[in-house]
Amino acid sequence: MPRRFLLPQIFFGLSLWLAFTAQSLISAATHRTHAAGGKRQSFLERTLILLDVSTRSPVKVLNDNFLSLQVDPSILKNGWLDFLSSKRLVTLARGLSPAYLRFGGKRTDFLQFHNLKNLAKFRGPGPDYYLKNYEDDIVRSDIALDKQKGCKLASHPDMMLELQREKAAQMQQVLLKEQLSNLYSDVTITARSLDKLYNFADCAGLHLIFGLNALHRNPDNSWNASSALSLLKYSAGKKYNISWELGNEPNSYRTMVARSVNSTRLAQDHILLKKLLQSIHYYSRAHLYGPNIGRPRKNAILLLDGFMKNGGAVVDAVTWQHYYIDRRVTKVEDFMKTRLLDTLTDQINKVLKIVKIHAPEKRVWLGGVGPAWAGGINNLSDTFAAGYWINTTRVDVVLRHSFFDYGYSHLVDQHFNPLPDYWLSLLFKRLVGPRVLAVHVAGLQRKPRPGKVIRDKLRIYAHCTSFHNHNYVRGSITIYIINLHRSRKKIKLAGTLRNKTVHQYLLQPFGADGLHSKSVQLNGEPLAMVDSDTFPELKPRTLRAGRTIAMPPISIGFYVIKNINAYACRR
């Protein structure tokens, strides 16, 4: 039976980034016509896929923080920043550590730092009938938090959360109007706000990456670093371990504010920021990432090329952003179109080509990635369906936009309940390590009609099992499989995987809503937090040695091969 080795590829799985780590995309079958007894087999008889993994050495080693998170500066406007001290939110974020936490987005370039402790006069608007009491509650909460040592955690009353959700809903309309019209108001971040943001990241075991305002400009269009320098000095005085960015999607500045920053100027701005960091003893070795361009179309690619050519290599990793679809998408089927999902592959290749020319040693990060533009689509980008993203990639880190409260494209909702992407991300963190293994498959598939490209919807990836998971010894392998077909697929473990005991973690939508569901089930059991501090037990189902893996339609499965003692995974 024919065999082939497939180049590394990645699935942006139910959490959008799930599969970015994967390097081993499998076309689930090779084309072959097989005669048995002189008769051609039926298509249904040709659905078995044989799977093997090369265990000698990894084909790539990803960043330990590969799957990382982002929160949008809009939380300063809508008031949710005051609730990042929630014990439940911190617990959920801690479940995805180790990871980076990027504080950035469209409003990065409208941030203004004020070294003030009292937030009251800078707080956003709220309904008059509760605003004063609401503000008083926030002040009382801040006072209580100040008395705590170490991680500052709070349990907010239900009424207070309900009022906040009402306020945030009203502000969301204002923020969306700004984004659609490209008319943005300034966003104030105070010392108190920065303290709360850092407390959240530190308590959750996340490394904060803070995006500075690049549109604060002098008359000659050079970057005005005064506000940034004040923020740097304050955070250094507090000994906050932070990495830094400058600006967000600089290729879109002309559209946003009728002002452009060319590639030479952009590189000079980053060089200036690097010098500022080096001038502050505490940040002399702090990391700087950039230039955070938008989707690499013509203008963005030209900007990136000029940036790297004119000194942009000063950054520690090259960053760019991507979203897949706009707000015109209204059907769940649109999230499943492979031709749309595959658009990322070409864009990654464009970015890597530029980086290879100017700084081949630089890592490339995909930041601010999400399923849909402008905060997503209600009842679509916050459901099980939004997790099916299949793409080729060779990026080192993927930052999911957003962990919490960004329209409808987030991992945790405003009731602090995990959405489907969260549970997939949690399983990924617990089971998948950074070492990527080569996958080999053999199988059968119908011969494509001339001129027609058949895009396969079965994806298979292999990694060493995470060393942080003490339920599995070193040498274990985790295989994860994404079945986008609307029919069951069978996979038979062969070669080095043959006759091994397997632990199955199968994720499917829970409830009658199907792909529209905002809940998931693991091996048939619905997943939900036990309480604010306790995750449910993620129990595997044991598959006996030699058993064929049967992947249900529209599902994602993690399969841990326990006793394989893979050489690539022992060290």
UniProtKB/TrEMBL annotation:
Keywords: Signal. Transmembrane segments: none annotated. Residues 1-21 form the signal peptide. GO terms for cellular component: extracellular matrix; extracellular space; membrane. GO terms for molecular function: hydrolase activity, acting on glycosyl bonds. SUPFAM superfamilies: (Trans)glycosidases. Gene3D superfamilies: Glycosidases. Belongs to the glycosyl hydrolase 79 family. This is Heparanase 2 (inactive). It comes from Astyanax mexicanus.
